């Protein structure tokens, strides 16, 4: 009864939070504060709204020019990045910097990797300035990842991953991948995992092979929040490698998983307007009729999922292990 009551409460709250959004408005960024007390919601019209961790709206920040590409908390201060390249702090009126038009932003430690018309730039959150630019040619479709400590970036090429020093922008290593690069991600321990028809792990920055994981042509893979477990997703099933062991645990899902929701529970978001959480033998499905998930974020306690939808509304959903 307690879970049913909480579920009803959250759905009622979700309907209130996302009431009557303007036409053509969509949610483009979400970020929970480090203590989970606040949730920042960014939209494609430049609005940034702060909510309490339980749902009620607290504050609407000054509108920015262009869509919000990323939101990042620095203690109680919120850093927002918009598509026109403006980086702002909630603690001051003037922008911190303008990096030019941006299509993608990723965070690693105290650094933001910014990609757009001016190439790949590194913004340091401690220094409030751009400290480096990647010294390599990049087209506008380039894909990259930044390691959790913010020390290195990996830029995807058709048959290689190019490692870049985030402090200087210099290329330090080119890791050749024979079967081609489908996707890439840094582990918490500093290694680089690459989807190359199977998941392969390399050291950073030397690029030495650590091991490869079984799995024929995985759709994607994800690491658990603590970086210890690996989730390899196939077409309609998934395998979890607890503590990165050789023997995986097979997981059958109604849809392919896309994220870890908890220690060994997985989450699927977006496909067919559904959100699915799975833990053990229990599957919980939330239907989002005629609305598609644009972005999502799990709170620090890993009890609530914030989902930003294509109609501009936001939903808070409970995650059960």
Placed side by side, the strands forming the largest sheet appear as 1-2-3-4
Largest sheet: 4 strands, antiparallel
Structural class: mainly beta
Radius of gyration: 20 Å
CATH fold annotation of the largest domain: Methylamine Dehydrogenase, Chain H
Structural domain count: 3
Instruction: Give the distance, in angstroms, between the N- and C-terminal Cα atoms.
Output: 16 Å
Strand fraction equals over 45%
Low-confidence stretches: 1-20
CATH architecture term of the largest domain: 7 Propeller
Q: What level of helicity do the residues show?
A: under 10%
Q: How many helical elements?
A: 1
Please write the CATH class name of the largest domain: Mainly Beta
Mean pLDDT: 78
Chain-wise SSE layout:
Blueprint: H1 2-17, E1 27-32, E2 38-43, E3 48-52, E4 57-61, E5 68-74, E6 77-82, E7 86-89, E8 97-98, E9 102-108, E10 111-116, E11 119-124, E12 129-133, E13 144-146, E14 152-157, E15 160-165, E16 171-176, E17 183-186, E18 192-195, E19 199-202, E20 209-212, E21 220-223, E22 230-233, E23 237-241, E24 249-252, E25 259-260, E26 266-269, E27 274-279, E28 282-287, E29 293-298, E30 304-309, E31 314-318
């Amino acid at each position: 009864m307690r879970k049913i009551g909480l579920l009803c409460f959250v759905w009622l709250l979700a309907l209130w939070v996302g009431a009557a959004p303007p036409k053509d408005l969509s949610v483009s960024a979400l970020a929970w504060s480090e203590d989970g007390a606040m949730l920042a919601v960014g939209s494609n019209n430049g609005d940034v709204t702060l909510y309490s961790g339980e749902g009620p709206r607290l504050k609407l920040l000054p509108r920015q020019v262009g869509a919000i590409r990323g939101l990042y908390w620095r203690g109680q201060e919120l850093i927002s990045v918009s598509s026109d390249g403006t980086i702002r702090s909630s603690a001051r009126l003037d922008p911190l910097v303008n990096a030019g038009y941006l299509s993608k932003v990723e965070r690693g430690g105290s650094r933001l990797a910014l990609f757009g018309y001016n190439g790949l730039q590194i913004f340091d959150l401690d220094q409030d300035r751009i400290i480096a630019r990647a010294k390599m040619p990049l087209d506008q479709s380039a894909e990259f990842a930044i390691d959790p400590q913010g020390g290195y970036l990996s830029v995807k090429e058709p048959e290689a991953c190019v490692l870049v020093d985030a402090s200087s922008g210099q290329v330090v290593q080119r890791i050749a991948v024979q079967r081609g690069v489908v996707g890439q991600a840094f582990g918490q321990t500093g290694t680089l995992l690459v989807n190359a028809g199977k998941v392969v792990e390399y050291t950073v920055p030397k690029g030495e092979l650590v091991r490869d994981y079984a799995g024929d042509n995985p759709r994607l893979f994800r690491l658990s929040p603590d970086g210890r477990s690996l989730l390899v997703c196939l077409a309609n099933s998934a395998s979890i490698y607890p503590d990165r062991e050789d023997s995986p645990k097979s997981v059958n899902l109604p849809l392919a998983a896309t994220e870890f929701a908890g220690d060994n529970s997985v989450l699927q978001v977006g496909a067919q307007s559904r959100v699915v959480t799975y833990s053990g033998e229990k599957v919980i499905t939330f239907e989002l009729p005629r609305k598609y998930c644009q972005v999502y974020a799990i709170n620090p306690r890993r009890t609530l999922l914030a989902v930003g939808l294509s109609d501009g509304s936001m939903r808070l959903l409970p995650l059960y292990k």
